[in-house]
Amino acid sequence: MNDTSVSDRPSDALYRLAAAGLGGVLLGLGGDRRVRTAMRVLGLSLIAFAAQPLLETRVQTAGDKRRRISFKSVIDVGRPVSEVFAFFKNFENFARVMGGIRSVIDYEDGRSRWEVYTPSGGTIAWDAVVTKYVPNSVIAWASVPRSAVDTTGLLRFTPLPGGWTRLEIALTYRPARTDLSDAVHSLLGPRPSRRLRADLEHARVYIESLPPTTSQQPAPSN
Predict the structure, then answer these.
(1) Under 8 Å between Cβ of 91 and 106
(2) Cα(146)–Cα(143) distance, integer angstroms
(3) What pLDDT, in 10s, does the model give residues 172-215?
(4) How far apart are CA 92 and CA 46, in angstroms?
(5) Among residues 139, 140, 111, 144, which one has the least CA distance to residue 126?
(6) How far is 193 from 62, CA to CA, in rounded Å?
(7) Lowest mean pLDDT among 72-81, 140-149, 151-160
(8) Can you spell out the DSSP letters for 54-93?
(9) What does the alpha-carbon distance between residue 48 and residue 55 come to, in Å, rounded to a whole number?
(10) How far is CA 83 from the centre of its chain?
(11) The dihedral sign for the CA sequence 73, 76, 81, 87
(12) How far apart are CA 56 and CA 62, in angstroms?
């Protein structure tokens, strides 16, 4: 049995083509002012009905492109590399500093479960696995095959003088499907790269506001 939707049937395409033709005819009809106005409204309505699938396709295509993310950035954090690495190696902390993430479950065995908000206010979830892990240096992860979202992440940590850390981040994000409501919200909302830069700055402020670890606290005087 075929899963052809109503909008994909040849008969539906013919109906819409006929509606567009009739709409054009109605726009050209004469008569008194009241009749012309009524025919114009009806004609435009028929043309809009005929063009609806094309407009929806274009909006969804544009929304899908808008939701695809390829993001790279660098930020310096005023904390030692061990502390910055300790914060990010627990993926559950991502939900504390990134507004678009609803929750992360870190199973502490290289697997994690991510759930984020969609532009229209819903949620989407997927599983990920760690692909590279070098203490105080690199963390990388990727979504598992056939996930609702194809995503990768890479964090590099570089110690700087004065107990600072340079954090380099690279993210890719591509939903497997974008529905019409998400496409519309993606087009109207702020660009993802702008939101991610704001989240990264929030992460910096949050980490720097945390109490120092015991090793960083000054020794008590005798």
Answers:
(1) yes
(2) 9
(3) 888 776 554 544 444 444 566 788 889 999 999 999 999 887 54
(4) 52
(5) 144
(6) 16
(7) 140-149
(8) HHHHHHHHHHHHHH-EEEEEEEEESS-HHHHHHHHHSGGG
(9) 9
(10) 28
(11) negative
(12) 10
